[in-house]
Amino acid sequence: MSKNHKIEVQGISIWVTKNNEDDYISLTDIARQKDALRSDYILQNWMRNRSTIEYLGLWEQLNNPDFNSIEFDGFKNQAGANSFSLTPKRWIENTNAIGIFSKAGRYGGTFAHRDIAFEFASWISAEFKLYLVVEFQRLKKEESDPAKLNWNFQRMLSKVNYAIHTDAVKEKLIPKSLAPHQIKFVYANEADLLNMALFGMTAKDWRDQNPDSTGNIRDMASLEQLVILSNMESINAMLIHQGITQAERLKQLNQIAISQMTSLLNAKGLKKIN
């Protein structure tokens, strides 16, 4: 499975990500259940409680050998005072905490280890925590499904073959005088050649048709399509080395995609996987 997943809990979208092989859940998203416009404020209110700080400190002491207990004691002594406030950033920087982290970007926000996230959800609402745990368990069950694991293997295989594919593009299609931004364009062009042959559209065409999707055209591909894509990347690399024009390669790859898809859909073994 990919590193980032989204689960739906009582109408709230919550991101789950991997950090050092552990599951971390977005506290920012959980806080939106209480106040969608002031999630940071909700999170800070939770962190200023003495019980919260004691729980966070205990978790770190059990899981983090580099935890700064001296700074932790200082926060614990101040907790509960009207003037005391604590942000995730301050907690992380002062105590070397690993149970909480913040990141920017598409999947940005404040994330916490699932143990801590469930504790925060309890503070938000006991009912909400229950639904969160149920959805999280459903996600973990889905990740362990053999068909999903096979899908993940094919996705990884596709990426490995893509590296071989781009090496062939660099060697045969890119003149030495091209600027870096032009080279990137050629790579994108070749990737869309495969997209056209297999999906009948470019990556941009797919995004335009699916504006609300969090993935891309290949993330949403079926197992059969990923198997074919993996094969096509190797075949296209070979055709590039042979000096075949792009137009002719597109025609051949499309015929290969049709033939392989027909074979895969008729294969009894693959039907059993699905």
Textual characterization of the structure:
The protein folds into 2 domains: about 140 residues, no CATH class; about 130 residues, no CATH class. The C terminus is likely disordered. A hairpin with a 2-residue loop joins strand 2 and strand 3. It is built from 13 helices and 5 strands. With about 270 residues, the chain is α+β, with helices and mostly antiparallel strands.
Summarize the topology.
Elements: E1 4-9, E2 12-19, E3 22-26, H1 27-31, H2 39-47, H3 50-63, H4 69-78, H5 88-95, E4 100-103, E5 109-113, H6 114-124, H7 126-143, H8 146-172, H9 180-199, H10 203-209, H11 223-241, H12 246-266, H13 268-273
Antiparallel strand pairs: 1-2, 2-3, 3-5, 4-5
Helix pairs in contact: 3-4, 6-7, 8-11, 9-12, 11-12
Domain KilA-N: 3-139
GO molecular function: DNA binding
Protein name: KilA, /APSES-type HTH DNA-binding domain-containing protein
Mean pLDDT: 80
Q: How are the strands ordered across the major sheet?
A: 1-2-3-5-4
Query: What is the N-to-C succession of helices and strands?
Result: EEEHHHHHEEHHHHHHHH
Number of helices: 13
Poorly predicted sequence stretches spanning 5 or more consecutive residues: 268-274
SS class: alpha+beta
Beta-strand segment tally: 5
This entry's quaternary arrangement is: single chain
Shape: elongated
> What's the number of domains?
2
Distance between the termini: 17 Å
